Give the backbone structure.
Amino acid sequence: MQWPSGADEARTRLVAALTAVGRGDRAALREVYDMTAAKLFGICLRICGERASAEDVLQTVYIKVWERAGQFDAARASPITWLATIARNGAIDWRRSVAGRAARDTLPEQAAFAVADGAPRADQSLVAAEESERLHRCLEELEDHTRLCIRAAFFDGSTYAELATRENVPLGTMKSWIRRGLLRLKDCLGDG
Amino acid sequence: MDDHLTPAQERDALAAELALGLLDGQARSDALRLLLRDPAFAALVAAWEARLAPLHGEWAHAEPGDGVWSGIERQLAERPAETVTAIETRLRRWRAGALLSSAVAAALAFVLITRPVPAPTPAAPQLAVARIESDAAGPLVLARYNQSNGLMQLRIHGFEPGALAPELWVIPEGGAPVSLGQIGHAGEAEMTMPPPHRLLMTDGATLAITMEPVSKTPHPAPSGAAVASGKIITI
């Protein structure tokens, strides 16, 4: 399940497969699955925290992909971003559900709070390099604690309350850090 | 909030919080409800998802078990084969329009009939109506609900058959949308509301319609903004 060396080629294949899924082609869904399951499962596993739930969520993610592929517009979104957003939102929906909260409560702290930071890795080449560089440059301009919390929210699916507990600051302080950080980020990206 | 944000900044910060997934409980329900009802807010959320998108390049990969794909196939086998086809041009136009303005493409009229139990006299039932938001040319749904037996009757006009079907939602005041299932493109329909849903049909709740992929079972959450909505108001 490796991406071909050329990111453009991978992207073209994925767009073609997603477009076919949009027409109701089930074989194309398998193709999308083969190309993306490892990435989307990585997202579900990271946010759900354990395999069984992450696999359940992954199933619902591909059912959503099947249902929504007709709405995918290659002119407006990269296919991998579109898929990753569905997976991340699906995993967060689960995490915020009653079942998700109960399951997370039984996990060891460390599994729940593996911090994400450091150098970009994995299939970075699949997202536009220029945009990626700009976002990372703007994130670097934020205070360390703000950047770390924003990254933890993105990669762990942490809530304000969880981040406040983890950083041992009042909830209001955490909200203030992150809100200010996000608005600064937007200014830095220069599209606001 | 201690940061004295302008209302526009507050709204944008809320969109960022929803996109990032920071919210929980009531705050999350409120934001999801806004996402459904307000296309301008939905556009802000989408813009934040796009800003953060480069981070998606950093996820570590993991191999799912073999059972996942067979589970997906099993779920697909239970669905009608024509579930998804390309979106109609007309609907694409509507979606584009919905992002640019809050124009309402369909109208929803709602009448709630409350029968006092026991009825003292066979008098006229109490009525509740929904605010009607209408673009006169658009599709129209008339709904009538009898609280004593949970029967919802619908008269549906003017949705064109296609890949997406109108799905009816009830949104409790301060709560997240709950699907009442999909309705046809035209004609009359009846549904008996399951008891848990009957509790949601109260004064102040909102009924809304979104366009969703065809599904035999109600969707857990709407995938886009409402094409019509109306508040239940007792008169």
Summary: The mean pLDDT of chain A is 84. The radius of gyration of chain A is 18 Å. The CA atoms of residues 49 and 107 of chain A lie 8 Å apart. DSSP finds ten helices and no strands in chain A.
